[in-house]
Amino acid sequence: MARKGSIKRQNLHIPAHIILVIYSIIVLFPLWVMVINSFKDRLSIYQNPFALPSKWNISNYSEVIRDGDFLIYFRNSFVVVVLSLAILLIIGSLAAYALANWRGKISRVIYFFCIAGMMLPIKIASIKLLEIIRNLGLLNTIWSLLPIYIAMGVPIAIFILTEFIREVPYELTEAGIIDGAGRFGVFSRIILPLLRPALASVAIYNLVPFWNDLWFPLIFISDDRAKTVLLGVTRLFGQYQTDWSKVLAVLTLSAIPVIALYLMMSKQFIKGLTAGAVKG
């Protein structure tokens, strides 16, 4: 009977696995098409975009790196995204620690005010943001993107980190206070190490929209030396024709940092998503 029960439970998982396999194929197929076409010449892409290249052509990558300014664009994107995520995690964790330990009506109002930003797209204020960035003297620099990206990520960071900190047993905080640690000591020595899965979740959640953002670089930046990767790709789009092989080569290169960071932080990311789901 026990064996029959286990077989039935395994059969119940079959539809879920089928759905996951189909979803994986749907997600990976565009990436597959992008990668294989980045090794083709322009004519081969139009002839059969879904087939493997008859001759693997790496000149698209070498020409993009050698002749263009795409290394500068990668550097700009890397600097902006890394600094934005670092500042975001610092601000978000400190704000979440304060809100999680501040019990009262005012703290709840501030908390709901912060997470209300998750429901309001920041792009609706693009004109006003352009005016603010101009008044700050940051126009046509990569630094114009920092305050925008931080503001984009703060609501979700506070939402995830506050709920995570509230799940930390208060006995740990009491033990730190008894040992003579202050509020910041408790945060840095006890809370912060426990926050690593949640911080990884916040970082990966915001990495993709920061790296793939085209809207705000297009509005704030016109100087070629300050463009980001996706904004630099628009240089390859011509009025009458587009060199798709080079475009796909750049997009393939731009996807590598995101995939690499996810693979490095996948365990922490999964722990952050499942934190609090299982007790005991």
Automatic annotation (TrEMBL):
Main location class: membrane
Q: Enumerate the transmembrane spans.
A: 12-33, 78-100, 109-130, 142-165, 186-208, 244-264
Pfam name, any one: BPD_transp_1
- What's a GO biological-process term for it? transmembrane transport
Domain ABC transmembrane type-1: residue ranges: 74-265
For this UniProt record, give its keywords in alphabetical order, as a comma-separated list: Cell membrane, Membrane, Transmembrane, Transmembrane helix, Transport
Please give the superkingdom of this protein's source: Bacteria
Where is this protein found?
Cell membrane
Check the record and name the InterPro entries matching this protein. MetI-like, MetI-like_sf
By its UniProt entry, which Gene3D superfamilies does this protein fall under? MetI-like
How is this protein situated with respect to the membrane? Answer: Multi-pass membrane protein
Give the family, as the similarity comment puts it: Belongs to the binding-protein-dependent transport system permease family.
Name the UniProt record assigns to this protein = sn-glycerol-3-phosphate transport system permease protein UgpE
Organism whose genome encodes this protein: Breznakiella homolactica
